[in-house]
Amino acid sequence: MENSTPIRKRGIRNESSYSRNVIKTAKIEGKEHINYKNKLIPAKKIAETLCNCSMKCNLSEIDKKFVFGHFYKIPSKNEQDLFLQGLIIKEHCKTHRPRNENAILLEHSFKYYCLLGSDRKKVCKSAFLKIYGVTERRVRTIRENLVKGLTPNDKRGKSKSNNAIQPSELKLMYDHISSFPVKQSHYSGKEFCYLSCDLTVKKMHECFLTKYPTSNIKYEYYNKYFRENFNLSFGRPQVDTCCKCEDLSNKIKNKSLNETAKKTAIAEMIVHKRQAKQFYTIQKNSRDECKIRNDLLCLTFDYMQNLQLPKIPVQDLFYLRQLTINLFGIHNMKSEDSMFFLYHEGEAYKGPNEVCTFLLTYIQQCVPSEVKELRLFSDNCPGQNKNNTVVRFCQALVDTGRFEVVEHYFPIRGHSFLDCDRDFGVIKRTLRKIDRIYTLREYLKLIIQSSNKNKFKVQLITHSDIFDFKSWWNKYYKKTCNSVESSKRSVPRDKKVCLNVSFFHHYIYKRGMVTTSEIIKSTNQHTFWLTLPGTNQIELPKENYKDILPINSNKMKDIKKSASYIAPSKINNSFWNEVLNWPIIEK
């Protein structure tokens, strides 16, 4: 015989099968049940005779069944009591005839009705109790609430245990756990918070008892409260840690150093982290500001870690060089959308020409004309984001009249976590689930599908899409110059400030000039006039890569070996036919 009771899944409660709820439901429905004292309680029955009073309260069997059945279909005791309260009318006693001097004078009298469809029938109290199968005590409680102007409220089973933890103790636990510093993951896509790897719940409980010695909170309850109310883990995985932070931390922990050296290291660490935090503060404030202002847009951009083609779980591929796939991402901090530019190493490099081309393409396609202020956030990579070409490109965006102001922020080295890095984390999590990828278009589809909210767009790039910005800017801008503040003759030669791109972390571009500072939002600023004398009109480059980029001959041999593991249905397409016949260069 099959068991009719469904099997409970792990982690899912079947509260309807709890004994207290079974008893409670049976009492509300008037059914036979066994109470808490293990005593059999019979089911409620319809009374055969109601009363013999002069009010003629008797009802027909059909009416009694209808009234009785309708009442016990009401799903809760509070609703049943509210229904009964609506059938009792309260009136003030007009006259009193006490039989003795000590008699209690009643202030109210009550009339009782039963509901027959849409009609009410007046009945006596005895008939009222028998019609609805309720006790005189229950009706007396309903009358008391009616006199006080209260609605019925069932308080049974809601009293707190004497051994229950007091709310003040719970607040102490909550505040204590919240006082521990947490760090957030960055590359995961979702926000996960981590406590220090040196902590455990046991140590936290010991600290709690040390801080509050009068508390009687046991470790078991503290651990239960921690698991149920906090989504925290211990030991944040370290990724791309800062070299200076590691160096200073080692100095602080070094027992062989004297106290003076340690204090110096601690002071350097405080200043270093304060400067690093300044970048994230500006980034957060800019995100909030651009969502309010229509004339402001904030973008973060960077290259993702190189991808490889083909991606096949074959052991020999670990020893072979494969076709490198480049992915450049731009994250819009206003709409939280992202656009990616996808290409392989034979189409373009990973340099300033590509970065400026992708930024210009995004501005032309996605940025409305009403936006007049642009803020850019990127890391300090000199070969891609922080170089003379990108500086002149940002200056040209203002000089051509596209924007009134362009600001570019660079973080402290080692603290360059950007919104686009979070997008890359989402993509990596999707790609880890796929064991075989053969073509560039498969990467394109997977990147688009990795966003659950359809926030990702991808463009395939060829060599003809890339503009030559490196040879363009020399026509309009100086190769180097001194700042306006230090260009006076009175300033010594060794005090003159030259435009060293790698030296500054904040650039503000305005018409014809750029203002820089070594530290973000610093008052010590330097202004440079970059435009060559006699330059009237600046045009952005129109020349692009004429030819594709040849691949190293030795690497091509490895790519062809890798291609032997690709399924025939995948290798015989136009992409691999083109790649395997790609021009090569001897190195």
Give the gist of this structure.
By secondary structure, the chain is of the alpha/beta class. It has 3 domains: about 45-95 and about 105-150, no CATH class; about 165-235, no CATH class; about 275-530, no CATH class.
What does this structure look like?
By secondary structure, the chain is α/β, with parallel strands linked by helices. It has three domains: 44-94 and 105-148, no CATH class; 167-234, no CATH class; 277-529, no CATH class. The chain is built from 17 helices and 20 strands. Strands 9, 10, 11, 12, 13, 14, 15, 16, 17 and 18 form a ten-stranded mixed sheet that branches. Strand 13 (373-377), helix 12 and strand 14 (405-409) form a beta-alpha-beta unit. The longest helix has 32 residues, at 259-290. The two termini are 78 Å apart. The relative contact order is 0.07.
Instruction: Tell me what portion of residues adopts beta-strand conformation.
Output: 15-25%
Give the proportion of residues in helices: 25-40%
> How many individual helices?
17
Overall average pLDDT: 85
Domain count: 3
Instruction: State the shape.
Output: elongated
Task: Report how far the terminal alpha carbons are from each other.
Answer: 78 Å
Structural class: alpha/beta
Uncertain segments are: none
Kindly state the number of beta strands.
20
Profile the largest sheet.
Answer: 10 strands, mixed
Q: Rounded to an integer, what's the Rg over CA atoms?
A: 39 Å
